[in-house]
Design brief:
The complex is a heterodimer of chains A (250) and B (486). Chain A is 53% helix and 11% strand. Chain A has helices at 9-14, 16-28, 44-49, 52-66, 77-94, 97-106, 113-120, 140-145, 151-157, 180-183, 185-201, 212-224, 234-239, 246-249, and strands spanning 2-5, 32-34, 72-74, 110-112, 133-136, 163-165, 206-209, 230-233. In chain A, helix 4 (52-66) crosses helix 5. With 486 residues, chain B is of the alpha/beta class. Chain B has three domains: 1-53 and 316-401, Fumarate Reductase Iron-sulfur Protein, Chain B, domain 2 (Orthogonal Bundle); 75-303, NagB/RpiA/CoA transferase-like (Rossmann fold), CATH 3.40.50; 411-485, no CATH class. In chain B, 50% of the residues lie in helices and 11% in strands. Chain B is elongated and about 95 Å long. Classes of the chains: A alpha/beta (250), B alpha/beta (486). At the A-B interface, helix 1, helix 2, helix 3, helix 4 and helix 8 of A face helix 1, helix 15, helix 17, helix 18 and helix 19 of B.
Chain lengths: 250, 486
Amino acid sequence: MRASLFITCYNDTLFPETGRAVVTLLERLGVELDFQPQQTCCGQMHANTGFRAEAFSQAKRFVRIYQDAEAVVIPSSSCAAMIREQYAGLFEELGNDSLRKDFAALLPRVHELSEYLIDRLGVEDVGAYFPHRVTYHASCHGLRSLQLGDRPARLLAKVRGLDLVALPNLDRCCGFGGTFSVKNAEVSSAMLAVKLQDVASTRAEFCTALDNSCLMHLGGAMHRQYAGMRTIHMAEILASTESVSAEALQ
Amino acid sequence: MSQAAAGHPVLDPTLAPPFPVAALPVLRNPQLRKNVAHAIDVIQAKRARLVEEKTDWQALRTAGAAIREHALENLGAYLEQFEARCIAAGGIVHWAADAADARRITLEILRQENAAEVIKIKSMTTAEIQLNPHLEAAGIGVFETDLAEIILQLGREEPSHIVVPALHVNRSQVREIFARSMGLKDLSDDPHALTAAARNYLRRKFLDIPIAISGANFLIAETGAVAVVESEGNGRMCLTLPRTMITIAGIEKVLPRYQDLEVMLQVLARSATGERMNPYTSLWTGVTPGDGPQRFHVILLDNGRSQILARKTERQTLRCIRCAACMNACPVYRQTGGHAYGSVYPGPIGAILTPQLMQMHHAQSLPYASSLCGACYEVCPVKINIPEVLIELRAQVTDQERKQVRRFFDPMYLGMRVAGLLFSRAWLFHAAQRLGRFGLRFFTGKDGWIHSLPGLGGKWTQTRDLRGLPAQTFHAWWAERSKEAR
């Protein structure tokens, strides 16, 4: 099994530990990973803010970089959703035939991390150990765009020592929304306050998700408030074992 | 100080402040936020139960979308058919190009009728064209008959929701409004007492005023019928007692066949109020001698709709059947309520409909009043992909604004342009990461976190910390690891 890791621009810059965890996890499962050094961004930020030309040029770059990959793994549900939901429209409007064709051929090989583990590798028990109380935040893109369903829960259920607590109002947005968190900072913060009440009600030590953008939002507020809980990307939970803890992976 | 800042909402998109500004007074108003969250949580829970029991719900949504899309694709033909059938049944059909046109036609009819007063069935379209203030300015007394609309009219409040317009007002506030405006100083806040007060007020209007104005939920091309669905029966009163009825309907409201109501009424009631069927569904076709209004006018309103119809992605906006499921599901609306949207159409549908009705000249902040979470699309009974339209409108706003000289150094535009350049070459991106790490070091505390940033970044740090940039990016780690392996 070979796969190419698309780390995404903000994981590369802000959350390299998530990328290292994906490497540890997938190599443990026998995947031969490669990393295309010319990769940058999927174009989500530009597309969702209305900068279509910039988004197109990044989308095109993505297709050109990965068109020969056996599989592309993305540890970010919103970036995977961007590719799946918006690329076709961008290429329809601004692309040419060869780009559209190459993208159509590539798309079935583009996977969010939990999809890759369950649908491509066919594993639920990844051999992880994480002795903590954890709640799972289903990011909107994972829930509605990618329809990840119970994949994350199935993966977490097999982690030894992990006490999974259901998060109330699982389908409600945390208020991040990319540039929304800055353009509508106050409304975003009000949404965040409501979400944090739900997270706090679980009395979990960790809030996990498959998207560091939601976690950056939730974690930023937890840190500000000395909330006594932390956020952690699910890849880091799945990568940790009895011999190598999540902290050691950081 | 703007009116919004003073706490009084402005629902005229040409005058309303931008969404983030208009939202502020609501965010600081605990009673309003509690009223809104409580009301939509109740409706949402009822809707969820009734959607779950419907095993063919997704098929119904697909059918609803297909019926509406087919009607829009053949709108011209169906409107002409509606017009012909309505005239054949004794109705009079008027065409209004815009709001001013519709108001002028309405006023002409009222003048012909020598009307000094008029009663109204709850209608979003008449709110859209700001009919009430114009009629009042022309000396005509306008009386709403929907209970929530009465509360708003008597309390001089603005609607904050398209199905439950007084959703932001709670029972004790209703008591206060009724007691004050009806002169009932001993009125209790018991629901029975409040309803009795409203009934008493309404009965006299129904008996005294012989002319009514309505909107329409649907126009049936096949028969020339107009359909209105409601919960209280006050609309039914307006449809039976007066001698003259004027219906003002957007041109997109047409359904091809009578049978299409089978799907539309099922999805509408469940989505709007969480009911299997709404209590009152009234259909009237032209004039029936000796039964109901003997003079019947329909004003078919365009007001920007033809332009929306012509656009590929945006056309789906016109499928909307005004059920409000999108605003009930919206986490943004749940915090802000309707007034922040500065339009009679709030919530996700308002965020896409209002700027388009304004032909992208006003309400430019509305397409950004969404975190793109997709809850609206998930519940929409006619499958309007609201996030897709929001993104399309954002692209149009950006294309307009980025040409403006004054936006050149706007931090958002500058930042997005620079980011676009950085993402075009990996080496540029990596250089920017290094520069960013160096620059942010001055803002990073001893705990490794950033607590305060200037400029746009300050919008983040006003409520959230940001972890300082890690010493090594992922790609640098990978490169180092690959070198060691060799």
